[in-house]
Amino acid sequence: MRILLIADAFNSLTQRLHTVLRDLGHTVCVQLALGEHALREGVDRTSPDLVLAPMLTTAVPEDIWSARPVLIVHPGPLGDRGPSSLDWALHDEAREWGVTVLQAAAEMDAGDAWASVPFRMPTGVAKSDLYRGEVADAAVQAVLLAVERFADPDRTPVALDPSAPDARGRLRPYHDQSHRRIDWAVDDTRTVLRKLRAADSRPGVLDELHGTAYYLHGGHPEDELRDGTPGRILATRDGAICRATTDGAVWIPELRRSRAKGSPPAWKLPAADVLAAHLADVPDVPVSPEQAAYRATYAQIRYTEEGPVGFLEFSFPGGAMSTSQCRRLLAAYRAACTRPTSVLVLGPERDIFSNGIHLGVIEAATDPVSESWSNITAMNDLVEAVLTTTDRLTVAALPGSAAAGGLMLALAADEVWCREAAVLNPHYRLMGLHGSEYWTYTLPRRVGAETAHRLTTEALPLSASRAESLGLIEASVRDTPAGFRTRVARHAAELAASDSTAARLGRKKQRLEENEGTRPLASYRAAELDEMARNFRGGPGERHPELRRAFVLKTRPLHTPDHLTRLCAPPC
After folding, report:
1. What is the β-pairing status of strands 475-477 and 415-419?
2. Nearest 5°: phi and psi at 130?
3. What percent of the chain has pLDDT over 70?
C-alpha cells in the first residue's frame, strides 16, 4: 500500500510509524503540514492509497479528506476529543488511557473510529516519556489494526458514539497555563509534580523566578531536603534546581525564558545555568551514582549491582549530553569498571538512550565553536573508554531511541539490546556534521562499508528489528517499557554465567590489539575530528551553525526535506 504520513514534524511517533510500516512492506512518504497548499501538493505528488496523520495540530482540508481516506491518530481513548489529551490525562491522574485512530471529518476528533487501543497509565512518568513509551506502543497497535481493517473491503469504521459504554473520553478544552499554574504557597509536592509532568516537554509551566518569567520543564520528587519557604530554591545538582513545596521539594532540571515582545527567542537549558547569577548562596549537593541508587532523589546517573552484573543507568533531559554530563558519565563508567563484575550494562531505565552532544548548551555558549569542541571531545573520551574495556563484557540496553553520537556510544559496547519500539538514527548529515564518536570504526565493522555509507547518507530512521537484521544490534526485544529492564537484567545474568564469557573476553582483547596494529583508534578519532572542526567553524559550504540554531529554536522549515518527500520503498 502507498501511505502518506502527514505531520507537524518528523517526531518520534511519526518516525516510529515510518519504520514499522516500511518493515511491513508498505511504500511510505512524509509530508510536513506546512500549510494547506503544501498538504495538497504532497497528496497530489504521491497519490497515496491512504493518508495517515500521526501528529497533527491543524485540520486537514476538506478537499483532501473528502476525496481520499485520511486517518488521524488521536492520543486519547474512544470518545476523547480536544488538543490536550495527554495533558488532561496526567492532570487528572487517569489510571487508564488509550489511542484512537479516527477518520478525518469536518469536526476535529469526531470522525468514525477505525481502531482504539487502551493502556494502563504508569505512575511517576512525565508526558514526553509517556508519549514515546506507552502512547507510542498503543498508537502502533491501533494504526496497524486500522490499516488492516482499511485494506479489508468488507470492513468499515464505527461511527463514534460518545454515549457508548466503551467511549470513556469526552471533549476537553485546551489545557492552558490557567490549569498549569503552580501556587507555591498552597500546592504540595504531589500537586506540583502533577502539573510539571503534564507540561513536559511542551509547553512547560509558566512561573516567575527572580523577577523574570520562565517556563519550568521536568519534575522529580525530593524526599530529604525540606527546610525552606515554599517556592524557595534550596539546592542545585547536575544542572537542576531544587524548590521547596508546602510538604517537601521538587527538582526542576530545565528552564526556558518566556519570550517578551521584541526579545530574542529562548530554548530549554539546564536550570542552574540559566539562574547562575542568582545562585551564589545556594549549595550544590552532589550525589554519587552509588548513593543515588538507594535514595529517593534526583540524579542523572545511578549505579547498582546484581551479583556479577553492574548497571550504570543514566538519563539526560531529551537525551542530549553536554560536556559536563559526558565527563560525569565517564567518571561513573571508570568507577564501575573497578567493581568485581563481569558484565556492565549501560542505559536508562526507560525512554531515550542518547542523542549525542547538547546542541542547546552549545548554542547558548559565549563561544559555540569552543563549546562544540569541548563537547565532542568529552563524548569521544566516553566512547573510547567503552571501546577499550577488555576486562568485562559491556552491554548497551536501549529502552528507547538513540541517534547520531548517542547511537555510536551504544555501538561501542560489545552487545546492543533494544526494546523493539526503539527507533535508531545512525547518521549526522541532517545537522551538517561529518560525525565522530568513532563511527567510522564501529559502524562498518557491524554492517559493512556499503551499508554504513547508505545508512549515513540516506538519513532515515531504522526500527530495532530492521537494525537487528542488518547486524547493527544484537537483539530486538519485544516488551513493555516497564518490562524491558527486567528482561535485560535476566539476559545480563545469563551472559555473566555463560561458560563462553571468559573466552569472549580473551578474543575481545586480542581483536582490539590486532586492530590497533592495523590502524589505531586514535587515527579514526583524529580524522573524524578534523572534519568536525571544519563543520563547527562554519564558513563556505558548511551549514552546521545555521542548522544547529534552527534545531534549537525549532524553526519551522520552508518545505519538507527532500529525503522525506521521496517515496520510501520497503527496505531490501
Report:
1. parallel
2. -60, -45
3. 98
Backbone angles phi, psi at 318, to 5 degrees: 70, 5
**Coil vs helix vs strand at 150:** helix
- Answer whether 0.85 is exceeded by the pTM: yes
- At how many degrees (to 10) do helices 544-552 and 521-537 cross? 80
Cell of 308: 556479577
Polymer length of the chain: 572
* Phi, psi angle pair for 254, to nearest 5°: -135, 155
Residue 465 CA to residue 117 CA, distance in Å, equals 22
| Cell 489510571, residue located | 95
Q: What is the pLDDT of residue 326?
A: 98
Measured distance CA(227)–CA(219) in Å, rounded: 19
Cβ burial of 220 (10 Å; 0-12, 13-18, 19+) is: buried
484: alpha, beta or left, given left = phi > 0 and alpha = psi -120 to 50? alpha
Q: What mean pLDDT value characterizes the chain?
A: 94
Q: Is 167 helix (H, G, I), strand (E, B) or coil?
A: coil
pLDDT at 225 over 90: no
Which comes out higher in pLDDT, residue 202 or 426?
A: 426
Radius of gyration of the chain (CA): 24
How many CA atoms lie less than 13 Å away from 511 in the CB half-sphere?
Answer: 12
pLDDT in tens, 236-288: 999 999 999 999 999 999 999 998 888 888 999 999 999 999 999 999 999 99
Determine contact, residues 192/182, Cβ cutoff 8 Å. Answer: yes
Cα separation of 542 and 275, whole Å? 33
Closest by CA position to 223, among listed 183, 193, 200: 193
In the predicted structure, residue 167 carries a pLDDT above the cut 70: no
pLDDT at 162: 56
Instruction: Show Cβ contacts of residue 277 under 8 Å, excluding neighbours closer than 6 positions.
Output: none
> How far, CA to CA in Å, does 461 sit from each of 114, 362, 518, 534, 566?
27, 25, 32, 26, 14
